[in-house]
Amino acid sequence: MPRALVASLLACPCAPAAAEQCKLGQLGELAVTMRGTRPLVHAGINGSDALFLVDSGASYSTLTAAAAAQYRLPLRNAPLGFAMRGVGGEARTMITIVKAFTIFGQPIPNVDFLVVDQSLGSGVAGLIGQNVFRLGDVEYDLAHGVIRIMQPDDCKHANLAYWAAAEGKPSSVIDIDFASPYNPHTTGSAYLNGSRIRVMFDSGAWRSLLTLDAAKRAGVTPASPGVVAGGPWRGIGPRSGETWIAPFASFRIGDEEIRNTHLRIGGEQLDGDMLLGADFFLSHHIYVASGQRKLYFTYNGGPVFDLKTEAPEGSAPEPPPAGSH
After folding, report:
1. Radius of gyration over alpha carbons of the chain, in Å?
2. What is the model's pTM?
C-alpha cells in the first residue's frame, strides 16, 4: 500500500498502559453501503468504478467472470491444484491482473485477482478479501457505514476499543490466531453450552452459521426438540444444502454471553466450527488488532443473529466462507 495513504496520527483515548503513549494512524477509510446483510464498497478497476462485497472470510480478492469481461481483463489459468472452495464445493478459478486498482482513494498497481465463473448478485463485481485488509489493523463499524484500516503506534498493551468509553459501552476482547499470507483469516474461540468452539469472523457470510458437527457435540441435531427449518444455503461451487434454527442454552464470546438463544446450523465445509457473519458484524463494532493478536468489540444493540428463513435482501450465492485454497 502506498505511503500516501498514511494520514495524521490520531490520539487514542484508550485506557493507558504503563509508559505507553498509544496513537492510532488511520491508513484509509471506506464508506460501506449495506444491501440487506451484505456490506458493499466502491473501488476502481483501471479508472472505472466497481462495486465489491467486503469479505473478511476470503483469503484473496475476487472478480466474477462477467466483471473480468466487462473491464476487458486478460485471464490465465490458476496454478494446478489451486481453486476457490466454500460451502458449495469447488469453483473453476482463473487469475487476472488489474493494472490500476483504486481503493481508499489511492491507486495500487498490478493487483492479482482470482476470477470465478459465478454471480455475486446484481452489480457486484467481486470480493475484497484479506490480501487488502491485511494492510493494517481493521476496524469494522458496519452499523455506521464505515471500515477503517488503522496503524497503531506504541499500542502493544493498550485497549484499542477506543470508541467504547465515549459511547458509554463496555468492551470485550478475545485472543485471535496468528494470521499469515497463507492463512489470513480472523479466527478465535467462543463457547457453546460451555464447550469451546472455533469461530471465524466472516463479513461475507450473510448470516452466522454453526456446523452440524459442532451442534452435535453440543447435543443438538436437526431432529432435536425445538429445531425448525432455517431455509437453504448455497455457496461458491455447485452444491447447496439446508439449514435449521436450533435452541442452545448459551453462546459466549469474550465477556458477552447470550443465554437461551437460537443459532442457525448446517453445512460441513467451514473453516472451524462456526462463521460469525455479517449479522454479527452489524450488531457489533469490531477492531481486529493483528499486531496484538486480539479482537476488540462492543455490542450495538438489537439481535446478534439473523434467524430469518428467507434469503436476505439482494442476495446471491454465499461467498466462500473458507476463502481460497
Report:
1. 19
2. 0.86
Same domain, 118 and 31: yes
- Give the contacts of 1 (CB within 8 A, at least 6 positions apart): 27, 28, 104, 106, 108, 135
Which pLDDT value is given to residue 162? Answer: 94
- Domain annotation covers residue 325: no
Task: Tell me what the pLDDT averaged over the chain comes to.
Answer: 85
Pairing of strands 62-64, 106-116: parallel
Strand partners of residue 187: 200
Residue-wise over 168-205: b if at least 16 C-beta within 10 A, else e?
ebebbbbebeebeeeebbbbbbbebeeeebbbbbbbbb
The domain that holds 203 is classified in CATH as 2.40.70.10
Query: Which residue range(s) make up the domain with 285?
Result: 166-299
pLDDT tens column, 99-158: 999 998 888 899 889 998 888 888 999 999 988 887 889 999 999 999 999 999 999 999
